[in-house]
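Problem 3 from the worked examples.
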Amino acid sequence: MARVLVTEPVDESGLAVLAEEHEVVRRPGCSPAELLELIPGFEALIVRSATQVTADVLRAGRRLQVVGRAGVGVNNIDVETATERGIVVVNVPDGNTMAATEQTFALLLALARRIPDAVASLRAGHWEREAFVGTELRGKTIGIVGLGRIGQEVARRAHAFGMGVCGYDPLLSPERAEEMGIHFLPLREVLRAADVLTVHTPLTESTRGLIGAAEFALMKPEALVLNCARGGIIDERALHEALATGRVAGAGIDVFAHEPAVDNPLVHLPNVVATPHLGASTREAQSTSAELVARYVRSVLAGEPVATAVNLPGLSPRDWDVVRHLVPLGELLGRLYMQGLGGQLGQVDILSAPLPGRGGEWVTAAVLKGCLADAVDDVVNLVNAQRLAVEHGVKVVFSQSSEVPERSLTLRVHAGAGPRVVAGHALADGSLRVTNLDGMPIEMAPMRYMLVTRHQDRPGLIGAVGTLLGESGVNIAAMLVGRRSVRGDAVMVLAVDDPISPGALERLRTVPGMARVRAVVLPEALAGGSGEAAGS
């Protein structure tokens, strides 16, 4: 059972998922000093946007394995330090997509139809229809900067309003944009064409101040500007100047560079509709984000990969479906090599069938996690495995071939006397099989406790091994022997129900013809076998 610290209000429906298996401690509103004092006692931290997860916090979290953000961005988390320390950072990129999309249109309609001013006037006892003449969206052009999940949803709804849609995104291909009915243009041309400009990019060093005075100078004076993404993408001083001088007509703002923004001069301009960071503030978004971040945190604590982890290579859902079974397989083969063959680590060659996107990086990290988990003092995971490999002088060569069967991997480790081979396969249901061990063809489902021997194929050896294990109280669940020739070198793998003591291993090494005996203990997540084995 791990301890999970939650420092901000998070929907209880999500936390209930975690509380079934772990201790969840709620400390909403805890100060930075309190967080530094508390964090050493926790394996997981869940935050929203207010908690600053600094380098000091991450370094103080000696047991910390995962930081979960119940929202989209991670600008309040020092991801670089987390990565250095092997701490997985997860967020919920899809949790508030619809909420942020609808907030964008809520601000746009409020701005275009002057809703807040009209409401205030009516509540003051006035009936001023002529004072609040608005503008229609139909026939206008919306320019979308950032065509990710939210930007694409905004485009779909803009089409429903009868708007023309143009957009810019450095990562999206023009062909894909055109498929969605978005006229793909350079940023400067989007600015010139837009009657409404809305930004939906992450806040990075390259997007900070992306829309400033020079950009406003390119826009129509009747244009409206929206930001429901991140404060800082739009230069607030430049926006204030553009609004105050009539360079642009109005702005709808939900996010600010510094929050709370009660003293921000933008919120007091008459042509601004501002809200206090409400983009994700719907019951549905809060519930979805809480449930997803809880699920991701639980997976990390269980040693399982999370495809949406921020500091791991990004994969689309379709690509992840191809790669996901190879991640546990890679870790399994790495552990089998280190524990079962007992070799050194020099160069690790990984051979796979062709993988989509950055799938090879996931597989490489998984193999290295398996190789290093029992060889270094650090806690090893998919985040820090490659860094630790570099620090320990391990070279990795990943290659792909169409001749390799799907969902199969082969490791060839060059160290000592020569290359050592371990290979395996993942079945369609995700269960794993070992297909080659130390160059010998076998086929066996991994179990938590196994015995791996290298020996001379000779009468009586297998019986002697079974007798010694029986005398040590170890029950054999399955056995498999691989050999290349009669009375030649052979490999034996025994799946057993019980741990094998050091004393039993020493006695097994005295059996005539025995060259090597190694005990293997796998994490339960990798030990999916039930004892079935088939020889070849």
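Problem 4, a separate protein:
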Amino acid sequence: MSEPGVGPVENDTNKFLKGIAASGGVGIGQVVAIERFATEMCPKRILNPEEVVSEIGRFEAAVKSAAERLKSIKSTIGPDHPLADHAYLFETSILLLEDRMFFEGTKKAIESERQNAEWALSEVMHKIAAAFETTEDEYFRERARDIHFVGERVLRILMGVPSESKIHQLPPHSVLVAHDLSPADTAQIKSERVLGFAIDMGGRTSHTAIMARSMKLPAVTGLQNITRVAQSGDTIIIDGSTGVVILNPDPEMIYRYRERQDVYRKYHEAVMAYGRLPAVTRDGTRSVRISANIELLDEVEIALAHGSEGIGLFRTEYLFMGRNDLPTEEEQYEAYRQVLIRNAPNPVTIRTLDIGGDKLAASLKVSPEANPALGMRAIRLCLNHRDLFRTQLRAILRAAVLGNCQLLLPMISCLTEAQLAKTIIEEVKDDLRSEGIPFDERIKVGILVEVPSAVAIADLLAKEADFFSIGTNDLIQYALAIDRVNENVNYLYDTLHPAVLRLIRQTTSVCQATGVPIAMCGEMAGDPVSVPILLGLGINELSMNALSIPMVKKLIRSISLDECMELTRRAFEMHSAGEIRGYLSDWIKKRFPTDYFVDET
């Protein structure tokens, strides 16, 4: 598998680039390059003292104008619009314009540093974005792009540059090539004129990827340098199922991908039917629950449509983000209530807050940390800020009576943390009981296994847990000492590293010995290449991006438990991630030559 943005180049034709497969399908058309707005070009000057008040007024007027324009664009998204389910993104953008760090921070820089509005705003944008971009979590990196989108809109107004690009006046058969696309950009696209997206930035959870899937358009993100090598008018092929982009393809290549386009369309129609079926192996000996990971209420319907049998991970962090205060108990209760009701009677696993204090409201007063990934975050933060934790627990316990709810504790690294968290849960139950407020007395409490120490003491933690869920994203990062957002080492990140597989096997062995159910909610759970190994190791539930569900179900229903056990045995005899991945990929390609289980490049 080639690295993003890198590939073989053959003269001026058939230039290959590799990115992230963000939305399936094949698009063949003409490049329309969307010019990037360079914040570095903002004018910079020191104001005279008498200019400060009027400059602040100019900034406030630009923010107001930007908010009005976003509201205007949002008003065009009716119930039949392809992006109707994502109109909430515009509310998020409008709220960001009012964000304390963004709005008040810029005004403070104008006043105290006597910076002109453009300069002050660009500096504030960089500072806020930098705080988010250092995290390995794609969700939080997406918030950095949100800041950039709204900040750029205000900058354009301040500089007198048209806020809208040619994106709403596209010719037919266009493939959009851009550094990034904001929700406002995407909302103005006439989908009948666009055949797909090729984007420098983002991943599978970026706004562009989510919206492309809603519009049923192929998209490749994370290309890094597509805007530097593609020019408007170039012929381009994008394969959103493998992450491949081909610039200036020759006739033979176009013919190949026209065939692939037709095959993909037919395959997609066929595989969607598998979402409605149970995930039982071909020989009927192994059944696995297939669930979805979500972070927004609107994702529930997408999960159900793709065959989700529950929510294996409800990330609650979005409730706390992009605001100046912490969410109230009632706000949280309503969000949890909605997820549980919409999924009933299927189970919903709600994870307690899993971010660092630096991402929360300033009122929390958490000191800056040199290494937040190893600092005061997740369960550590909650145990140190009991009021925050108790409020969330009250909301979850109250909502739990309305559905099939489980509670998941993140980043448990020692027995003491698990026991203390459970003690607090019981104290909250006592409070609710004394207040006469209904709650789920027997809610199941699970532990998210995502640090190596939790694997090492899994036998001890099993005595405190109703279930385990393996969070492979962090487990791999901590076990292999790899920062996934560090481009110098992220190539070492591999779900099939022998050490990772051994950690999973050690955990599943404990669960089988103790009778504790075990799930997996990391990205590995939705990787078809890994699925046979996970079945062979005895995972009871796989929770993934909803769009992966039909394909994973199809794979499971097409293989036997004996095949899974043999693949697992062979994999554990191998010595490197590359050897294991190559072996599994080759096996799947031979076993399923017409399916899209494996990236073919």
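Solution to problem 4. The longest strand covers residues 26-33. The mean pLDDT is 86.
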